[in-house]
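Self-study notes.
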Amino acid sequence: MIRMSITVLAIVILVVSIGALAEDQPSSRWPYGFWVAVMDEDNGPLDFMEIRSDGRVVLWGICRNGHSTRGESLPFHLSSGDIYVTWEVPGKGPIALVFRPNTSKTKLTYTSPRTRNNMYYEYRAAKPCPAA
């Protein structure tokens, strides 16, 4: 009886541990979910974005005091493992934003074509600014 209880306890601990580790890991539905800017080599504001299964990326402003502003909703597609976002500037033309994932698909890197500096995003299981 004690041996069975220890086995059941070990299984419960294993399941809970895997769940905790997976909380901030992309699901099998990669790249969908929330991506938070954690570092910008140009020292710009750290925003976040939501990559949605409907083929759109929603850009969000900085989370301050539990609030954020919703910005553009832009189309994206995947190509050769990268995420390509198209931002149409009225009267000008398109700007391509390209995000490259790391091998574990938990981080994205965006390289500015103007400055050649990087901005780094990390996956989050939940919306980083819930009141947004």
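Second protein, same conventions, sequence then structure:
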Amino acid sequence: MKKTFYLLIAVAVFGLVAVSAVRAEDSVLTTAAVVVASSSELEKIPSPDQIKNFKIMKKIGDVLYGIRKGTSTEKIELKKAENTATSSKLEKIDHPNLVNLYEKIQKIGTALWGIRKKATSASLFIEPATAACVATAIDTKDKVLMVRVTAAAVELNTALTVRSVCQQTAVVATTTPREALNSCVKTFNETQKAIKEASKKIQNDTWKTYQEGLQACRTAATSTSPVPMIEDGGNLFD
């Protein structure tokens, strides 16, 4: 009887030790999984329907981890590139027509970066014989741009008025105006996009004409020094 009693106690003690060991092992695995996930920029996927939002998935124990799409590594790399650009005295080129003012140009993300060319006394000198020609080229360019800015503002205000009337009509005409409201916004977005594209085309064409005008000013120069490009501060219609 005593042997049976001692045997039962031994079995119970062994069972408790085994359970503790398993729990300890589970704790270690869980801790390890969290460390691995953190060090690899992995994120725990909360539910199966969220899997589509992750990439580079890895199962650790019974838990699925992954890197969320469009975040983390991609943004970090772009940030590093931009920091490198800043530390190397690179500048973001605001408009394609300003490319000729830079050297060592490279593409970072979706933008062009470069080191601004150093101005020399020769490149900044405008001969008196060409000064009037350069001033005329600037005046012509800016007057065209001012006309377009005014016209674009009128067109945008008209589009806003049309959208406003459309939305007001939609909300009082029916108790379920969702489709009508969506149509109002769609029309406005299409009009706004057309205004922007037309404005950018006019600016690009104007800048091209401006460059050609400065080139023509060389005929009045008495030296071989190139007529400098006079910057105007970038793109008006981004």
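Instructor comment on the second fold: Strands lie at 43-44, 54-60, 63-68, 91-92, 102-108, 111-116.
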